Amino acid sequence: MNERKEISALTTLKEFLGLAVKLHKPYLAALAFSSVILTAQTVFGASQLSILLFFLQKRQYRQAILCGIFLAAAGFCLSALGKWSNRLLKIHQARLGEAFGHYIFGKVSRIPYFCLEDPDCLDLLERARFNVMNENCIRAVLTGLANIFQYVLTLVSLAAFLAAFDYRLFGILLTAVVLNIILFRFFSKERLKFSDANVDINRKFVYYTNTLLDYENGKDFRMYRLGGFMKKKFNYFTDKMVIYYNRYLRRTDVIKGLMQVVKYLEMMGIYFFMMAKTIWGSLSVTLLTFYISVASNFSSTVSSLIQSSMSFYIGLRLAMPVVQLVRLPEETTTTEGITLEEFQTLEFRDVVFRYPRSEQKILDHVSFRIDKGETISIVGMNGAGKTTLVKLICRLYRAEQGEILVNGIPIEKYSYDSYMKNIRTIFQDFKLFACPIRENIAPEKADEAVWESLKKVGLQEKVSGLPKGIDTVYTVTYEEESVDFSGGEEQKLALARVLNKEASLTILDEPTAAMDPLAEAEFYQKFHELIQGNLVIYISHRMSSSLFCDKILVLEYGKVSAFDTHQNLIKNQEGLYYKLFSEQAKRYADV
Fold first, then answer.
1. CA 583 to chain centre
2. Of 529, 526, 501, 530, which Cα lies nearest the Cα of 512?
3. For residue 492, which of 533, 532, 463 has the smallest C-alpha distance?
4. Cα separation of 492 and 485, whole Å?
5. Of 53, 131, 198, 219, which one has the greatest count of Cβ atoms within 10 A?
């Protein structure tokens, strides 16, 4: 992944609004309607008293009474419309916010896998997650945008009255606006500096919090006194967050105080100007009341606009990582391309690969071929490129050089869906989830299929003895009647998941690492029988898996140093395979 580029606030706003329209169009209509109603309420509130005073001053009492009734009815209607429009806006704002949340978290699941191992991308994901969940940036943008639309429309209406009355009064108000904008910029800078510093600190704070609360760490805490060390780290970052927050409050309180000073000076200017206009300009009481009300509403609307603009601008800046996340490419999961019926052959042809931002070649001109019905074992020292090879087969990464061919065709030419449908794998770092056993194995299949797969891996008896059988929730963290499994049993559950998927290529990365030797031997014997006819790849540090395989691929420093049968490889006493197999066999013999 290339290093991400910073984007401007204007670009963020443009793309944010484009996505908003795409996700929930009614929001903008509700926003426009609410803005018009708020403007009408403000202008009506500023003028109704002056209209009533106009008739009273002329002693037109009958007209004053009729006007009062009309104003009351109009005020009631505008109030009802205001409440309805505000409710409508909140509903559509909530729906848009929810749609944004679904889209963003869906986007994370659709970005290419290699992004999840790229430090720059992981930082972007963390910032986007933090700003959405902790800073609530989407709500800040949506609320700020709604308020800005409403206040700008109101200000335009009020400014028209003020400009027609006397440009000098309008000048006083504009001076206050400029001063407030300058102070607003200072406030925004402080807020964003605090947010940027807080993201990194909070990430470490959350890590140590989760580490301290994770019950699985209890053994290590007690054995190696790591709990106290972790607590010190937790306290350190807590104190650091408090220091940053106090510094932020001190600086922003000064700016808020200056904003209040500007507000009071503005009101003093308005009242002195209107008093002078009344004394020397023979301004009527009706007009005096009207323009003071308009000026006051203008001033308060400006203050509200600045506050909303502040929140909106900050929210927009915090939304930048979200927009950058939206820009990331997505995995191609369509049906476009050739449909793969089954794996007949799998061939690596001069494949070179290195991870993003790394100069080291993980796979260096790797070439080999396996055919349907063959079972191979990939062996080598740690870091030789075994798991990387699997990631390339699973299209989690693309080769930098060379080709990976299935049935003689480059794998990129097959439709992603049909290709992935033909692969079943268990990764070394497989995951089980805190949900019922059936959902961990095959959520969309019938009970019989789940029980059959549990029987194949030797877990049927244990699961049938549980209170809720296959509906028992895995891990005791969440429910009283849930269950925990040993490492070997967890691995068997993951293997049951593999067996529930029909595929023509099976890849097992360290499938027996958590099993005892007897369970391991039983597994290989059963599993070899179950997947006959498949194209099978084993990766294991336990060399016993090689005895069940047709060929062994030996990787050494990212290169293929040998690819042959066990019988032939064991004859070469200078080869890596002989050394690995003999050393492990010796340890078993010594026992």
1. 46
2. 526
3. 463
4. 10
5. 131
Angstrom distance (rounded) from CA 212 to CA 226: 10
Q: What angle do CA 362, 388, 344 make, to 5 degrees?
A: 120
The reported pLDDT for the residue numbered 505 is 93
370-406 per-position pLDDT tens digit: 999 898 999 888 888 888 998 999 998 889 999 999 9
| Residue 300 burial (C-beta neighbours within 10 Å; 0-12, 13-18, 19+) | middle
- Cα angle 352-353-359, degrees, rounded to a multiple of 5: 110
Could you give the CA distance from residue 17 to residue 156 in angstroms, rounded to a whole number?
A: 23
pLDDT, tens digit, 9 for 90 and up, residues 51-104: 666 666 667 777 778 877 887 888 889 889 989 988 888 888 788 878 877 887
- Please give the Cα distance from 173 to 537 (Å, whole number): 76
Dihedral sign, CA of 390, 393, 394, 399? Answer: positive
pLDDT at 2 over 60: no
Using the Cα atoms of residue 402, residue 408, residue 413 and residue 418 in order, give the sign of their dihedral: negative
Kindly calculate the radius of gyration of the chain based on its CA atoms and give it in whole angstroms: 35
Calpha distance 261→266 (Å, rounded) = 9
Alpha-carbon distance of 478 to 553, in angstroms, equals 43
Helix (H) or strand (E) holding 236: helix 226-281
Instruction: State whether residue 369 is helix, strand or coil.
Output: strand
CB 64 within 8 A of CB 52: yes
Side chain identity, residue 48: Q
User: What CA–CA distances, in Å, run from 389 to 6, 87, 351, 355, 410?
Assistant: 34, 56, 10, 12, 15
Report the predicted TM-score, pTM, of the whole model to 2 decimal places. Answer: 0.63
